[in-house]
Amino acid sequence: MSQSKTDTGHGSEPGTGTSPEPRENIRTGPPKLVPGMVIDEVRFAVERGKIREFARASHAGDAIHTSQREAAERGLPDVAATATHVVASGHYRSQAEMLTTLGLDITRVVVGGTGWDYHRPLVAGDELTGSRTLVSDEAKTSRSGRSLRLVTLKTDYALPDGTIAVTGRETLIERG
């Protein structure tokens, strides 16, 4: 079942005495990025308490998110996560490192879009590994003539057996 919800500096490396490769941004050109490259990984558990927090915050009134009995009556082994639950993984990974890897200047970045494709429901007790990869890195010009950089990323959230439970997409726009 699949459902959609709608997306540096220079210096010595410690202990080496060598300078790292500079990270460039839109002003000087993008770093050498290759579609398919892994940007980062994150591991986390889908927790019943966090599901309850998301359900409350998003006003998800369906008892499937808070009642184990209701979830069991609907064929699930535990309470179901809300549709945007995987955004919690952002708290477990370094967004600053991601921006550095991509060569983005946070002061000029806006989110262009996010979305998720669920291949199966997430439930309390699931253990996920999210692998974020680069889909594309494009330079464009806005209607007003400003340079734009659009970076599209994909995160596959896999269960321990390798099955992809959720695929997330995000587009970041760096304004020149």
TrEMBL record:
Stretches assigned to the FAS1-like dehydratase domain: 35-157
Chain segments carrying region Disordered: 1-33
Positions in coiled-coil regions: none
Pfam families in UniProt: FAS1_DH_region
Protein name, per record: N-terminal half of MaoC dehydratase
Native species: Brevibacterium sandarakinum
